[in-house]
Amino acid sequence: MLQQPQPRHRKTDILTQQGFEKLQTATSQTAIWNYCTKSCTLEALSEQTGLSTHTLSKVHARKAGVDLRTLVRYFSAFDLTLESSDYLSPIRHGETTEPSLAAPSDGVQVTESLPPNNGVSWGLAPDVSVFHGRTAELATLQQWVVEHRCRLIALLGMGGIGKTWLATKLVEQVQHQFKSVVWRSLRSITPHSPMPFSDFLDDLIRHLAPQANPTIPEPIGAKMRQLMDTLRRKPCLLVLDNVESILPGHTPQTASRNGSTEQHSAEDQRYRELLRQLGQGRHQSCVVLTSRMEPQPLQWMSGENLGIRSLPILGLQLAEIQQMWSARRAFQGTPAEWSRLVDYYGGNPLILSIVATTIQCLFAGSITEFLRQDTMMFDEIREVLERQLEFLSAPDKDIMGVLASQDTPLSFSELRSNIAPSISTIVLLEALKFLKARSIVERTSANSCLQPLLRDYAKFFTHTKQPHDIEYAPR
Ligand SMILES: Nc1ncnc2c1ncn2[C@@H]1O[C@H](COP(=O)(O)OP(=O)(O)O)[C@@H](O)[C@H]1O
Ligand SMILES: [Mg+2]
Fold first, then answer.
1. Beta pairing, strands 11-15 & 87-88
2. Angle, helix 335-344 to helix 452-463, in steps of 10 degrees
3. Which ligand is nearest to the CA of 129?
């Protein structure tokens, strides 16, 4: 493993005119560019780069310095390589005054070589500089990556629970163990269809093996071999975010989960074959993936000694949520009320940030008042869950309905006896497996139960179920 110096984290770097223009040209060639205003919004740029709008404004203003990693991330989001003439570092050059826009800094030669993290292609990874908790998870993951040299690690859990952030933090911590690092999301901009697999392979090869000639069109098999060869030759770290996008049953259209013949299912299958090869193939690299659902190739291959591991990601702790919320205005509540709030939402930081905004806007920060209304499952939360659970089939919903109506976890036989006989045991088993694989039903215990938020959600859709919604076909 490589031992390289730690990168600088000082905020001293400013774009040169050349660097600024490079970014502008690259941005104007993307879908986020607005041809009427000849610009794009900070929000769209933030989504594309994973940098906050505040940081982006600072980069554009070119007055105050930013962390070099910010510039690297900005450039790599547009597939650009940050060169030494694209930025300038006043402190490094002993300059005391800030460069003026009227006197562009073109031509300033920066001789210091870039730090090693210039080899990271961050894609759409978020800016995780304000990060709370996850000490135990990071320690485990670091051990799996660095000591156990695992080939494939899956971070699994519900949407919004913090998988993407954890994967990004992990990369920040272990990147210097690797020669190249690439972070990519499999969720495409077009709904429900991933990037064409061949383009995806080209992109990976371009970053991991830049010496390869990308202009020669190769069959997919040859590209796969080239990728695997690269991963064998040098230690690379590859992060694949939102892997659920290529798994069966992730969209309403594929919700039948019965071997649908949609156009993109062949593409999805190629992605899944890549996962299988990444897990089984002999190589010295590490792949970290995040997914709302355990990919099937992993279910077959997981095992302590096989270099393939998965880590279920649970919510953040009360103290961590309190830290997150302390950046906002003050909240008032007793310790018991805080616990009730965080437990109910399962420590899900995304959902809790919606709750925080609601408590601030409607209850002036009073958790006590919010809880008094007894409306913890309000519309905005239900909409988030609806989007996340749009793939549920009728048997899935029936299982959730039964679990929601019981006070204690149910064994499989108890569940069976509470479900309509029209659902066969095979369909029931499959549905339960599916719900557990997606962390909707508690994964780790033999008995089945739902967390409080999902119990209330399930009660809502069992009350509104229409007779024509019921369809008990096998998957
Ligand atoms: N460890 C953390 N510290 C601070 N905020 C976090 C942390 N993890 C997640 N978040 C917040 O929760 C949101 C959702 O996290 P994310 O990693 O995108 O979830 P997932 O990938 O599981 O859907 C993030 O946008 C961030 O605001
Ligand atoms: Mg995510």
1. antiparallel
2. 60
3. 1
**Range of lowest pLDDT (238-242, 256-260, 368-372, 423-427):** 256-260
Q: Does the beta carbon of 131 lie inside 6 Å of ligand 1?
A: yes
Q: Tell me how far the alpha carbon of residue 272 lies from the centroid of ligand 1, in angstroms.
A: 26
| Mean pLDDT value across residues 132-161 | 95
HSE on the CB side for 282, CA within 13 Å? 0
Is there an atom of ligand 1 within 6 Å of 161 CB?
yes
Q: For tokens 């998957």, what's the residue?
A: 475
Atom of ligand 1 nearest to the CA of 158: 22
Domain boundaries, the chain: 11-115, 135-312, 318-385, 392-469
Choosing among 3.40.50.280, 2.40.50.100, 3.40.50.140, 3.40.50.300, the CATH entry for 135-312 is 3.40.50.300
Structural tokens at position 138 = 């990071």
Ligand 1, residue 131: give the atom nearest the CA.
Answer: 3
Percent of the chain with pLDDT over 90: 45
Q: Which of 49-58, 113-122, 224-233 reaches the highest mean pLDDT?
A: 224-233
- The set of residues, in sequence order, having a beta carbon less than 8 Å from that of 459 and lying 6+ positions away, is 401, 404, 405
